[in-house]
């Protein structure tokens, strides 16, 4: 059974930091690109960070570039999102996503249940 389990969310003051984790099971984690998305109330779910299967390449949305860092540990089947200099506009539900493509065709896609991050004084 495929599972993506996020943890590490919570309430933090502006300027603070949080580290999200996403533990994966039930699929070949090391073969999948891992993504973090977020969705604020009344808004669409946005892709904010991506890391390739081997961890050799990362990409970030402009809104988080320079403040957030995505990383992964394939030995632990876990992906992380280090969030620094948090702003109230970072408040959202954060989702872990796994995706695999072969020759451009998506062959697998999984979602976690999400973890809430609230940035407020």
What would you say this structure looks like, in words?
- By secondary structure, this protein is mainly β.
- Helix content is 0%, strand content 56%.
- The protein has strands at residues 3-7, 10-12, 18-25, 33-39, 45-51, 58-60, 68-73, 78-83, 92-102, 105-111, 115-119.
- Strands 2, 4, 5, 6, 9, 10 and 11 form a 7-stranded mixed beta sheet that branches. Strands 1-3-8-7 form a 4-stranded antiparallel beta sheet, with no helix packed on it.
- A hairpin with a 5-residue loop joins strand 4 (33-39) and strand 5.
- The chain is globular.
- The N and C termini lie far apart (40 Å).
- The model has no long low-confidence stretch (mean pLDDT 97).
Helix content bin: under 10%
Which regions are unreliable across 5 or more consecutive residues at pLDDT < 50? none
Query: What is the chains' assembly state?
Result: single chain
Quote the beta fraction: over 45%
What shape does the CA trace take? globular
Structural class of the secondary structure composition? Answer: mainly beta
Major β-sheet profile: 7 strands, mixed
H/E element sequence: EEEEEEEEEEE
If you average the pLDDT, what whole number results? 97
Beta strand count:
11
Distance between the amino and carboxyl termini: 40 Å
Helices, by number, come to 0
In short, what is this structure?
With 121 residues, the chain is mainly β. It has strands at 3-7, 10-12, 18-25, 33-39, 45-51, 58-60, 68-73, 78-83, 92-102, 105-111, 115-119.
